[in-house]
Design goal:
- It is a single chain.
- The protein contains 4 helices and 16 strands.
- It is of the alpha/beta class.
- The radius of gyration is 17 Å and the shape is globular.
- Helices cover about 20% and strands about 35% of the residues.
- The strands form 3 sheets. Strands 2, 3, 5, 7, 9, 11, 12 and 14 form an 8-stranded parallel beta sheet that branches. It has a 6-stranded parallel beta sheet with strand order 1-4-6-8-10-13, with no helix packed on it.
- The protein starts with a strand and ends in a 5-residue tail after the last helix.
- It has one domain.
Length: about 220
């Protein structure tokens, strides 16, 4: 089925499966592994993700190379989710019904309470993204396992008191990421994850190094 709502999926192993224009709303995924799969125009809305492994996931046109369509996640929670290998574009947004509207305090309080019980949420330490992922609503960066050599942690409290805009173009794409961090009330911290491909890869790494040198990124 291409579009499902309110389902629960446990103990699932899928290898080399193509997902074309698929969506899941309000679904729970527990003990699920996806390996060498390909996604095109797929969306998760308000998912509950626990003990999930995604290994080598492409986000390209089904049946051929070329244009990439990001994998969109709206809202939801994650506990013990491993993203590794070569991955396509990922954008984790606030809940879909919040777009263009005020954030709902009661749901945000629920999200915060959930993560207060989590030892770690996502592991990206072995992930190699083809484009910079955006965790606009994902778990707090403190709960994301990362490669400290290439992936940096930035806390909103620090970004709010630091004149990072004065760094200008020298931090490249991280200007947009930091703007989201200081504009919205969640998450409290983020992880900067550079892409592995493209002409801007070196720029992204240098931007992280600069943010670390001035004390904004860890």
């Amino acid at each position: 089925m291409r579009h499902v709502t309110g389902g629960t999926y446990r103990h699932v192993r899928l290898t080399r499966v193509n997902f074309d224009n698929c969506s899941a709303t309000g679904c729970s995924f527990n003990d699920v592994e996806l390996s060498e799969c390909r996604l095109w125009s797929c969306t998760l809305r308000d998912p509950v993700l626990e003990d999930v492994v995604v290994d080598n996931m492409r986000t390209t046109i089904i049946g051929g190379p070329g244009k990439r369509e990001p994998f969109f996640v709206f809202g939801g929670t994650a506990r013990h989710v491993v993203l590794r290998g070569r991955l396509g574009s990922l954008i984790w947004n606030p809940p879909y019904e919040w777009l263009g509207k005020e954030w709902k305090t009661d749901l945000l309080d629920h999200i915060k309470a959930f993560y207060s019980t989590v030892d770690w949420a996502i592991d990206v330490s072995e992930a190699r993204f083809q484009s910079v992922p955006a965790f606009r609503f994902g778990p707090p960066g403190d709960l994301i396992r990362r490669d400290p050599a290439t992936q940096a942690l930035v806390k909103r409290a620090r970004a709010l008191t630091f004149d990072w805009k004065a760094l200008g173009r020298r931090i490249g794409v991280w200007r947009v990421v930091l703007e989201d961090l200081v504009t919205f009330p969640w998450p409290e911290s983020i992880v900067l994850i550079p892409a592995i491909l493209g002409s801007r890869h070196r720029e992204e790494i240098e931007g992280i190094e600069l943010l670390r040198s001035v004390g904004l990124a860890e």
